[in-house]
Amino acid sequence: MLIPKPAQSAYENADTDIREMLDRMIAELQATPSWEQRSTQFLEIIDALELAFEGDEDGDDEFDDEADELDDDDLDDDDDLDADDDEYVEGQSAAGGTVNGWHGGPGVPANDDGDDAEVVVVEDFADVLPFYVGAVLERLGETRIDRAEQAAFYLLSCHPEHTEAAQSWLEKVGNMKRFQKFVDDTPDYEAILEMMDERYGEESDDDDLDDDEDE
């Protein structure tokens, strides 16, 4: 099944730090000769990304807990705190190309329409995973999907060209069985599918609820 080139590049829209990280991921996958082995490597990369993402969230939670312990009177009496707040906002605004502003955890490019681009805060790893997968796959430059392991990761991409190519491959006779066998034999990938289904299934349910309320 042919893979069309994505109309928009996730990789090119990422900032320099993210591209450097993506380059390391891409190099690791390119050094792996087959998708049978590459799928294992890709899952290890995704696992490391998730751990980094959750680690950044834990750091934010600790910051919030410490802030909650501050005495309100101390906040009122401290004129320097307002200046600190202004510096924080300026720092976030200066980072207007990445998710989570200047925080050290993983990020993805926001809609960059100029100097006033809005910082997008992402709270769920399922929201950023398609970006990373899509950016890596587009740089691999593959032109065909030939294996179930390969289709499995193209299904996770942020690029509609990738997901449509994977879905078309699955529709060919016997390919769905091959894909299901890969899922059954690969618990880590099955867990990713469940995570994505839980995240976007909830979103779909919310949309259905809104439609019912409108009626």
* Proportion of helical residues: 55-70%
Radius of gyration: 21 Å
- Helix/strand-derived category reads mainly alpha
The 3D shape can be described as globular
- Largest pleated sheet: none
Q: Topology as H/E string?
A: HHHHHHHHHH
Using brief descriptors, characterize the structure shown.
single chain; 215 residues; mainly alpha; globular
Polypeptide structure, described:
It is a single chain. This protein has 215 residues and is mainly alpha-helical. Helix content is 69%, strand content 0%. The protein contains 10 helices and no strands. The termini are far apart. About 21% of the residues have low confidence.
Structure described in brief:
This protein has 215 residues and is mostly helical. Helix content is 69%, strand content 0%.
Topology:
Elements lengths: L9 H4 L2 H15 L4 H35 L2 H6 L2 H15 L30 H16 L7 H7 L5 H11 L4 H11 L1 H28 L1
Helix pairs in contact: 2-3, 2-6, 7-8, 7-9
